[in-house]
Amino acid sequence: MELLTIIKAIILGIVEGLTEFAPVSSTGHMIIVDDMWLKSQEFLGKYTANTFKIVIQLGSILAVVIIFRKRFIDLLGLKRFSRKEMTAVPDGQPQVSAGGKLKLGQVIVGLIPAGIFGFLFEDYIDEHLFSISTVLVGLVIGAIFMIIADRFAPKQTRTESVDQITYRQALSVGLIQCISLWPGFSRSGSTISGGVLLGMSHRAAADFTFIMAVPIMAGASLISLVKNWQYFTLDALPFFIAGFISAFLFALLSMRFFLKLINRIKLLPFAIYRIILAAIVYLVWF
């Protein structure tokens, strides 16, 4: 595989890593960058290129696992940590709740709706929604939803920490997450917005979003790999590896930065960015 092709994989990995945890849609950004400039479908084929845009998220998932490693170890019952140990977050400001800990059952409840919808409509999404026009729709509608969340969120936050999330909130956020299956809408954008409307702090909603992202993104990647395995060749392997490493490194950096900012700047700046990006891409592309 040529060096220029590997560079394209690294660029897509950078795009994925920088945008996965911000509520701006990493998949939407990859589709825009790829379709407008990099053209990975020309040398990978349509299905392999679409699978790459899903599988590359495993690099970002590894970053989540590292940052929340104590949380995941505790959820799986492999070792028990105190709430303070688990919530000594990357910005150095522990968030300790007065109640119990987040339970694995709550995470599972949050995963079920999107898991079902993703399994049922994965083929349709791959075939019809991986395009710039659908991404622009997702960017704008998602931005409006984020503005509504910031504007109409309860004045008194009921859930300051992820450990205070209830089963009802977990299920509600899981249902809202289903709309993020539309490329461009953004998983974190939909779930953080939904969590905020349900009375969570921006940080609690973000933490829950990232924890849920690990199994659902890993599952989506596995399903996509299995369904499109016949399209793969050994020639594509360096492309996937380069993208994975790039996504991991930049996700590790961007996630820590995002977690420091989300309670301060909230969602409005990201919503404005999405609308501006959609307008620019529309003018350039159409």
Give an overview in words.
The protein has 286 residues and is mainly α. 72% of the residues lie in helices and 0% in strands. The chain has 14 helices and no strands. The chain has helices spanning 3-19, 26-38, 41-44, 46-55, 57-67, 69-75, 83-86, 104-128, 132-152, 167-177, 187-197, 202-227, 237-265, 268-285. The chain is globular, with a radius of gyration of 18 Å.
Short description:
The chain has 286 residues and is mostly helical. It has helices at 3-19, 26-38, 41-44, 46-55, 57-67, 69-75, 83-86, 104-128, 132-152, 167-177, 187-197, 202-227, 237-265, 268-285.
What is the percentage of strand-forming residues? Answer: under 5%
Shape: globular
* Sheet with the most strands, sense and barrel status: none
Order of helices and strands: HHHHHHHHHHHHHH
Estimate percent helicity.
Answer: over 70%
List the total number of helices. 14
Decide which structural class fits the backbone: mainly alpha
Number of strands: 0
Mean pLDDT, all residues: 91
- Rg over CA atoms, rounded to whole Å, is 18 Å
Give the N-to-C terminal Cα separation.
32 Å
- Unreliable runs, pLDDT <50, ≥5 residues? 91-98
Write the topology of this structure.
Layout lengths: L2 H17 L6 H13 L2 H4 L1 H10 L1 H11 L1 H7 L7 H4 L17 H25 L3 H21 L14 H11 L9 H11 L4 H26 L9 H29 L2 H18 L1
Helix pairs in contact: 1-2, 1-13, 2-9, 5-12, 5-13, 8-10, 8-12, 9-11, 9-14, 10-11, 11-12
